[in-house]
Amino acid sequence: MKMNKKPLGYFTALGVMTLLMACTDNAPNDKLTYETILPYAKNDEMKGLVVDDFKKENGWQDTSAVNTYNVRYNYNLKLTKPLPEVVLGRANELMDTVRQSHKDPGFMGISALQTDLNISTGAYNWIAPQKETFPARRDAFLLKCKPCTNFLSKGSKDETELRWNTFIVAWAELEELGFSDAAITGNKVPRQAWSGFMKTENGWRPIVPQ
After folding, report:
1. Where does residue 155 fall: left (phi above 0), alpha (psi -120 to 50 degrees), or beta otherwise?
2. Using CB atoms within 10 A of its CB, is residue 206 exposed (0-12), middle (13-18) or buried (19+)?
């Protein structure tokens, strides 16, 4: 009886493939980590601010949990328009949030009051430490943004104050992300995002915070 013989190279290749499959099974694959972590990075995006250069930086097994693996990505946030216009776009989003809270104010208007308080407190806490230096900083920032000055001058006294507060809170958010007042279109700031993954009977799965 004649037997079909496999060449030696076949078994060598099979062994290498088996080894590679075993190795990759020790960590979540790049497709899973990319698709899981990219949305976390995109939470930083806003009008005029996009995620750029999104790349895997590292991965490591959690020493406290043998079936858990952590993966971290590096990325940049890139300005696609002048910084004051990005701040203005974010301020408009905050204004929409405020308006929505006023339409649905909650029990005894508590939700609307809390939203207004958060905005005004956030603005005050950012301006107060700057003391007498803020007016000059404000004027320089608004100098080349006509749409900003139009936004900040609309409405009644109360509405104008609210617009200023939302603009200040938005400005503070961009500063916290790493953009100085001198930032120009095309500038980037480095950021990181990560997630944990758990090995299950059906393969690796993201650990979603509850």
Report:
1. left
2. middle
Q: Tens place of pLDDT for every residue, the chain, 210 residues?
A: 444 554 545 444 444 444 444 445 789 999 999 999 999 999 999 999 999 999 999 999 988 888 999 999 999 999 999 999 999 999 999 999 888 877 776 654 567 778 888 999 999 999 999 999 999 999 999 998 999 999 999 889 888 999 999 999 999 999 999 999 999 999 999 999 999 999 999 899 999 764
d(CA 187, CA 179): 8
Alpha helices (runs of H) in 62-109, residue ranges in sequence order: 83-103
Give me 67's structure tokens.
Answer: 């079936």
pTM: 0.79
Buried b (16+ CB within 10 A) or exposed e, 59-84: beeeeeeeeebbbebebbbbbeebbb
Q: Hey, what are 110's tokens?
A: 């508590």
